[in-house]
Every structure is written in C-alpha cells, then in structure tokens.
Specification:
With 72 residues, the protein is mostly helical. The chain has four helices and no strands. The chain folds into two domains: 33 residues, no CATH class; 38 residues. Helix 1 crosses helix 2 and helix 3 runs antiparallel to helix 4.
Length: 72
C-alpha cells in the first residue's frame, strides 16, 4: 500500500520524468489487477486508440466492461 501512496505522491512532483514514471506504474498496476484476459483487451484497446481506430478500441473496452462490471 505504501508503494501506491508513493506513486500517487510522485504524480505531484515537479520532475516530469518522475510524474511520467509514476503514471505508467499506476496504469500498469491497474491493468494487472484486471487479470490477464482483461489486461490484454485493455492494452489492445489502448493501442487502437493510439492508432486513432476509435470504434475498434471502443469495442475492446466495451468487452472488458461487460465481462468485468465490478472492475471498472
């Protein structure tokens, strides 16, 4: 729990590299908490967002929300 508190604190750092690192670490923890199948779908949706394939990304996120309603 202390590591999460430290990461949350790092989000307020003046150092952009520390903020970015904390952001990525928190996202990775969140992805991992969903389980391997959900994590793969979330990451695929995120990749599709980066490619501006919004409708395809939405379908992956919708799949995760439907399969894991208590996760979201």
């Amino acid at each position: 729990m202390d590591d999460i508190k430290n990461l949350l604190s790092d989000l307020h750092s003046q150092a952009s590299d520390l903020r970015n690192s904390a952001t990525m670490a928190l996202w990775n923890r969140w992805y991992f908490e969903a389980g391997k199948v959900a994590e793969a779908d979330i990451r695929k949706g995120d990749d599709l967002l980066g490619l501006q394939q919004f409708e395809e990304a939405r379908l992956y996120f919708k799949k995760v929300v439907k399969a894991y309603p208590n996760f979201c």
